[in-house]
Amino acid sequence: MAPSHRGRTVPVTRPTDPAPTLPVDPDSVPREPGPLHVRPSAIAAVAAGGLLGAPLRYGLGVAFPTSAGQFPWTTFAINIAGALLLGLLLEALTRLGEDAGWLRRVRLCVGTGVLGSFTTYSTLAVDTDLLLRDHHLGSAALYAVASVIAGLLATTAGIAVGAQVRTRRVEAAR
Question: Are 101 and 93 within 8 A, CB to CB?
Fold first, then answer.
């Protein structure tokens, strides 16, 4: 409400804009940062991480190629390792604090950037399709199902390891 004047409440009036049709000076209005996915700093963090993860994945694919009709072990291992590391990273970051500041930058750079470009679930789909085209139905089914199940188990293991972050920190403080 407003201050009272001789026992009566007096409404507070705010001055009105004398020129409401004039444009607002952008320097005088505090800027909202906007959604995370369009902020230049977030895009830069993801891009920087992608510059590390994608070449690493490519290099492993070149070092350990898969011949036509064979089980794509390299892609399988990359995806499972990435699932484990992503589970560990995200759980550890969650336990360290709110998704802001350096924690957010690490999540974007390492989680989305490095691990997002390192893992290659689109290649999982392509490899499965190639196995199906080459009439390796059993291998295609095994690869697709094993990738999902092993990825889930690896993520769970990563989360379990990441859950120890705060526990050890708290115990060390005692």
Answer: no
